[in-house]
Structures are given as structure tokens and as C-alpha cells.
Amino acid sequence: MPSATGDTGAEPPMRAWKFLETGRIAPFGGHTWPAPSGDAPGAWVRFPGREIFACRLDDLPWWIATELWEVEIEAPVRALETQIAAAAGRLLRRIDAWDGPALRAYGVACAERARDLAIQSLIRDGRAEEAQALGRARSMLELSRVARGYAGEGRVRLSANLAGYVAETSMRASEGAAAAAANIAANAAVVALADPSAFDRERQWQARWISEHAGLTAVPVAAV
Amino acid sequence: MSAEDRDLVARLRAGDERTFLAMVEKSHRAMVRVAMGYVASEAIAEEVVQEAWVGILQGLAKFEGRCPLRAWMFRILVNCAKMRGGREARSVPFSALETEDAEGERRPIESFRPPDDPRWPGHWAQGPDRWTDERLADAEALVRIKAEIERLPPNQRQVITLRDIEDWDSAEVCEALGISEANQRVLLHRARTKVRHALAGWAAEGGT
Amino acid sequence: MSAARPQDLACRELVELLTEFLDGALDERTRTQVEQHLVLCPGCTEYLRQFRTTIGATRKLAEEDLPDRVREKLLDAFRHWRHGS
């Protein structure tokens, strides 16, 4: 397959992922990415003096949006902390498995992780009844309500603060604000495990969730 | 010099009244607002604008086009206004209903969580209410915006007028007013923040 | 509510950066922080939307409002200059 520069076989095309808003709209630039047609990739997106951005697998949780696309990117490529910057990019294919229900399910899965940490913490604190009540909640909304009952004003008790996070992440999950839910859940992990590095580990779990549910694992990504 | 500027200068020098009046009309409100940044009243600002036009016409022969024509025009305006403002003491009454912070600045109050919040210090206590499209489409919205702009401190009013009403770019505004980019942005931001807040009172569902 | 890690922006800080953000005047690191925060904060996303709407509405105020007496005076000044030069 010809590379971006037109040479055949000189370099394999560099691939990555990109989240866009509905209609292939760049979330911050506002411009529309050209769609692929049939097997042909979309036209290259290139701005003089500006880069385009894309995700490695681990970057995905930071940039959640309604559409997920596989993209090809063009050198030079810079690796940043939570994304990669490239001179140009073009859309290859839409990840159809990342749809409305998937986005929603993602938020719920993240909130459930926080719930489970809270349950463990409550059990360790000898609060088995409250732990069970959290586990029995049948919807995100109900979970939020139950957790809120435990949150209170306490700044000292770990479980109380954790319960607050659980109430907040499940409320966001119930609203469909999945990225907000995921971020709150990552913060909850830090508090539950009393470990700042738990945040990044939670993000990595979230990235794997997205990758598995959207079927991304089979595709090689730019090794940047 | 841009082709457009070259054309305007040529027409003015040729004595083209229509072109002159069109330019006057287009920039009149902006010129008055900018002048008001330096003088005590709108009446005096109107006089300054007229003086500035004389200066602009007399200076046309020397205009080299190293900067855009309108930036050059407004520079002359600012110089006239400053000279005039220096001669007369400026006293702008503050409304007793406004609160000022340490810098003498009216600040809208948004609800953020306090610094000692256990989970989200500095985050929205309650996010901003959503705006309804119908309220925004109402002509009253523009009345509100205009009223709030008139209430701004003069230097903020100048910048928001040139940037957001007249759609000048950042560099031109700095050139015309003789201020730095950073300063211009601070003034613009404060102005926009107040205007958004004023509009929010109207545009939020159930706002008055 | 969004992030509570010390290195992440609080909403109160973010709203102060919006004019620079829209002008493209933020350094890369700060701009990235703003963008990341917007992804996960519905409150700030709405605020930015309102900020942009405000700017768009303000643009409609561009008006031509020239009192007749002012027009006459300026036209006089123009004619005077024209004949003098």
C-alpha cells in the first residue's frame, strides 16, 4: 500500500485513532474531516503551521467523543503525554462499534468500578450493610442516590469521600456524560487505594475497555 | 498597502464625498466608544471624533500604508482623545449598586466550590444554566448586550467594541490603542465575561 | 465537576483562560489542559458554548448610527479640506 509520501513499501502507513463530534467535526478546531468513500481514505487534513492530533490506545480515555475513527497520520509525528501530533491525517474507517449505547455503557462500566472500590472500602470499615446497599442498586440513578446518602459532609472519613465520588460518577453515567463519569471514577481510585498512581492505572483500564468493546485490538497502531 | 486601503485613500484624495460618508458612518460608533476611553462625556467624545477626522484628512498625504488604514485612523483618534482628555479632568461616577474588588473591578459572581471543598475545590458548584434559543433570538438580547457594554469601564468597552463588534483582529486593536497583546486580552476577557453574565440572566431558562 | 488532581485545571481557572484559548494564544501545554478539561466537564463545555454565543451575538451590534448634524459637520470639514489642499 503506498505510503503517505507516495513511495511503495518505503514505510508502512502510520495509524492511530481519533475521536470526532457527530458529523466528523473536530472537537476544538470545528472543521469537518473529509469522509472516506468506499475503500478510499478521506482526503488529507493539513493546516500550514498547525498539527493534527490523534490517539494511541492509552490516550483514548482523554478524548472521548461521539465518533471514533481509525486514521492514518503523516510524519513528522511528535509524541505528547496524552496524544500524538502529526503534520497531517486522514480518515480510514469509522469504528461502528463505538456508538451511542457503547459510549453510555462505557460511563456505566467506569462508575461500576468506583462502586466496587467503595464496596470494598465499606466492608473493610465494617459497614457491611451500606456495602450491600450499594451493590444492590439496580440503576446508575439509584446507585447515585444510595451513595449520596453516605457522602455527607465528612472530610475525614475515607469511605464518606469515596461515597461522594461514587454518587457523582454514577449520576454522570446516568446522564450519559461518560467522559465525566470516567474521570470521576479515576479520581475515586486514587482515594480508595490511597495511591496517586491509581489514576493512571484506572485510565489504562478504561483504555482497554474501549479497545475491547470497540474491537480495536487487532489493528497495529503507530509505535510512537 | 492593501488594495482596499489604496482604493479608499485614492478616492478620499480625489474628494469623493460618498466614500468619505460611508467610512464615517461605518466607524462612527466605534470611534465614539474608543474616544470615550479618554474623555469625560459622550458629547466631548463626539467632538473628538470630528477633530480626529480633520487630522485624518490632513494626514492622508503622508499615509504610507505600513499598517492598515483604519488602525492608523484610530491611532490619530486616540491621540486627539488623549490630548483632549488631559485638558479636562475625567470623573466617572460608580454606581452604588455595583461591588468592586481590590482592583476596583466589577466581577460577576459565578458559583464555584470553595478552596476547602473535599473533592472539587474551584469546580462548578452548579454548572451554568443552559440558554434557550428562543430567548437568544429575541431582539431584547441585543439590547441587554448593548446596555452591558455601555456599563463597562471605558478601556474594556474600547477593546470589546473593536474586537467583537467591529471584528478587528488582535494586532490591529493593539496598534490602534497602543496597548500590548497581553493587556488587550485581559481587557477583552473581562468585558466578555461581564457581557456573558448579563446575557445569562436573560437567556437562561426562566431568566428575567 | 471534573478533575481534582493538583496538576489539572479547576473550572474557576479554566474560565479565565477562554479568551486566550479562542485567540490561540495559549502555550501547548495549557491549551491541552483546557481541551482535556472540556472533554470531561459538562459545566465548562456549556460555559464555553455561552461565551462563543455571546461573542457571536455581540457582532450583531455593528451599526451605522450617524446623527444628521454630525454628518453635516463632517461633510463641511471634508469640503473645507478638499478645497484647501
Strand content of chain A: 15-25%
Mean pLDDT across all amino acids of chain B: 86
Q: Which two chains share the most extensive interface?
A: B-C, 52 and 46 residues
What sequence of helices (H) and strands (E) makes up the elements of chain A? EEEEHHHHHH
Spatial sequence of strands, sheet with the most strands of chain A: 1-3-4-2
How does CATH name the architecture of the largest domain in chain B? Orthogonal Bundle
Q: What number of structural domains do the residues of chain A give?
A: 2
Please work out how many helical segments of chain B DSSP would assign.
Answer: 9
Number of H- or I-type helical stretches of chain A? 6
Tell me the domain tally of chain B: 2
Structural class of chain B: mainly alpha
The CATH topology of the largest domain in chain B is given as Rna Polymerase Sigma Factor, Chain: A
How would you characterize the largest beta sheet of chain B?
none
Strand content of chain B: under 5%
Q: Helical content of chain A, roughly?
A: 40-55%
Oligomer: heterotrimer
**What kind of sheet is the major sheet of chain A?**
4 strands, antiparallel
N-to-C order of helices and strands of chain B: HHHHHHHHH
Blueprint (SSEs and pairs):
The complex is a heterotrimer of chains A (about 220), B (about 210) and C (about 80).
Chain A: E1 14-20, E2 52-54, E3 67-79, E4 84-94, H1 100-124, H2 128-136, H3 140-151, H4 158-175, H5 178-193, H6 198-213
Antiparallel strand pairs in A: 1-3, 2-4, 3-4
Helix pairs in contact in A: 1-2, 1-4, 1-5, 2-3, 3-4, 4-5, 5-6
Chain B: H1 3-13, H2 17-35, H3 42-59, H4 69-87, H5 133-137, H6 139-151, H7 154-165, H8 170-177, H9 181-203
Chain C: H1 11-16, H2 18-23, H3 28-40, H4 42-59, H5 68-84
Helix pairs in contact in C: 3-4
Write structural notes for this entry.
- The complex is a heterotrimer of chains A (224), B (208) and C (85).
- Chain A has 224 residues and is an alpha+beta fold.
- Chain A has helices at 100-124, 128-136, 140-151, 158-175, 178-193, 198-213; strands at 14-20, 52-54, 67-79, 84-94.
- Chain A folds into 2 domains: 14-94, no CATH class; 100-193, no CATH class.
- Chain A has a 4-stranded antiparallel beta sheet, with no helix packed on it.
- In chain A, a hairpin with a 4-residue loop joins strand 3 and strand 4.
- In chain A, helix 1 (100-124) packs antiparallel against helix 2.
- By secondary structure, chain B is mainly α.
- Chain B has 9 helices and no strands.
- In chain B, helix 4 (69-87) packs parallel to helix 8 (170-177).
- With 85 residues, chain C is an all-alpha fold.
- Chain C has a single domain, classed as Orthogonal Bundle (Arc Repressor Mutant, subunit A), CATH 1.10.10.
- Chain C is built from 5 helices and no strands.
- Chains in contact: A-B, A-C, B-C.
- At the B-C interface, helix 2, helix 3, helix 6, helix 7 and helix 9 of B face helix 1, helix 2, helix 4 and helix 5 of C.
